[in-house]
Write a structure and sequence with these properties.
The chain is of the alpha+beta class. Helices cover about 40% and strands about 30% of the residues. It is built from 4 helices and 5 strands, in the order H-H-H-E-E-E-E-E-H. The protein has a 5-stranded antiparallel β-sheet.
Length: about 150
Amino acid sequence: MLAAAQLKPTAALPPPLRDRAGRIRERFHLDALGRYREQDAESARAALADAVWNQRRIQVRYRRWAEPQEGERALDPYGLVLKAGVRYLVAAVDGAVRTYRVSSLLRLDVGEDGFERPDGFGPAAHWQDCLATYDARRLHRALTTASPRLAP
């Protein structure tokens, strides 16, 4: 099935590019998924993408790091981020934008209610902010673990 899907775009290329695409396929392979990672259920990915695209509020049950281990939330799904084979959901809950790992979603129900995305919101900018915040927290934790006097 994958081979058939690859043939269509390849057949549409002019002959010199078709030959080059074949040589590339013979020499390189991209496997974006990390090893030993939980994979998202195909049905959940499709339902989630549909909810993001059509701006439909969702109800999720998800696995958390903190106690209690499971939580439940109503979310406005703003977008999806794929980072090194791991999917993340960017969603608003109670007015705050948060990020959820899709493989941690235990249940997903797409509702009929819609929502309005904030003007100009994009998952790429939110993701960069998340990374910066995460790195700052990690550095602070490392410094306070090494010595409380080193913490900023």
